[in-house]
Predict the structure.
Amino acid sequence: MDAVMIGFQEKDVMIEVLFGESEAAAMKVAKHTTVSGHLNGPTSVWMKGEKTPPERTFSGWVYGTSDEVICLGFMMDIGNIKEPVESQYRKNLIYSMYAQNQYGKSPEMDEELRLAGEVYVNELLRLRKYLEDGEKIRIWYSDAPYSRCGFYSLCQMLLNFENKFYIVKLPEYVVEKTSVVSYRNWGEVSAEEFAGFLPYERMLTREELRMFALLWVELTEDNSSLRVVINGRVTGVPEDFYDFLIWKRLTCKPVKEARLIGDILGSFQINIGDWWFARRIEHFIRNGKIKIVENSENTYARMICLAEPVSD
């Protein structure tokens, strides 16, 4: 019997587009696996030199190679979106978020963080080359603000191309045999699970493409400091939108900054990174509303508390 490819969900090569580092890394693993065997014999799975299947639910692999994965991690849910994604403003903003806590980071790591924005610009150039070559594009997005905003902004660019576009939107939850698994963003999906979401794939119509592009135009005209998803719709809000969560958890009793941020993210299940709250806490320290009780070179390890009780 001739050898066949086993474990892949499809044989159609796609360029995968995602909007976050961790999810793009997982997709690269999902597309970097060779699975081969015979119809009448055993099947072997090779993943980075290992010959045993992953422990987590295995849904097969996504056909292709890791080179076909594009990460557009421009964080389009924050900051001035009238500035082009290739602008120095956007690069500086990305660095400022990634570099919230520089403790223990080497100069080489700092330089890598500084170049993150440039890496995404190069990823965008790679995508444009694939588009010009007529490749099929598959976009993986979720209701997380960074993902929805990345998707909408991408749709505006895609209006200039006639390629076939496909989308896979992350469902709110998935029913498994004995449990229900909920997801907030693609970063919570492991490499071996990605192929299991391919049944959610569908073609993006030209009408939808124009609609999503128009939504991005409206958000750009609004140009709020922050964009969130409220009742299923992306909405521009002030920079202090999430601040009430800090005041809900911070008291006059000193607490480690990392503990406070972790408590906020764990309790409220919102789709924004720890770096955003670290940035806002730093803002309130400078403004005298939050006090450093015990300082540390590691900003996440310092002890902080309210400078004075919050009045009702």
The radius of gyration is 22 Å. The first strand starts at residue 3 and ends at 5. Confidence is low (pLDDT under 50) at residues 1-9, 34-55.
